[in-house]
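Students often ask why inverse folding is considered easier than folding. One informal answer: many sequences map to the same fold, so there is more than one right answer. In these notes we will look at a single instance of the problem. The structure comes first.
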């Protein structure tokens, strides 16, 4: 799991968004210009606790990156994970075009960066290091879901 505490202060703007992105492991190897490009692709949202972000079985349209707060991941009505700053989710349905594999709900007040499907593909096409990180996270999640299966 990718976890990094991010001390986020201040308001929006590309400079502050680029600084937030720089602290996230998924984007940590990018230069300033690349971070600004990523910042333009994303929408920053602040949400209260108990807000459902995606629902298991529904179509996936967004990729989420947690800047601050906690997000609970449930599968079949049972909590399977708690994600925090630096973690991302929502990529599975975007990669395979299938339905959401879990429900995600904010557990606390949460600040997120959100990418739509088109922006997600633009990001992973333009930045191979990001694509590699997303694929590594997918592989890690598959291994954790099916620990007895040879990979």
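Output (designed amino acids):
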């Amino acid at each position: 799991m990718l976890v990094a505490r991010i001390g986020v202060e201040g308001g929006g703007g590309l400079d502050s968004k680029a600084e937030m992105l720089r602290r996230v492991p998924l984007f940590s190897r990018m230069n300033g210009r690349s971070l600004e490009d990523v910042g333009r692709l994303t929408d920053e949202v602040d949400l209260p606790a108990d807000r459902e972000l995606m629902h298991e079985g529904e179509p996936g349209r967004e990729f989420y990156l947690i800047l601050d707060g906690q997000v609970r991941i449930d599968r079949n009505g049972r909590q399977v994970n708690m994600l925090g700053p630096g973690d991302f989710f929502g990529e599975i349905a975007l990669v395979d075009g299938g339905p959401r594999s879990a429900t995600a709900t904010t557990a606390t007040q949460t600040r997120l960066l959100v990418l739509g499907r088109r922006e997600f593909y633009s990001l992973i096409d333009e930045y191979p290091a990001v694509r590699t990180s997303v694929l590594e996270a997918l592989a890690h999640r598959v291994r954790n879901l099916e620990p007895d299966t040879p990979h």
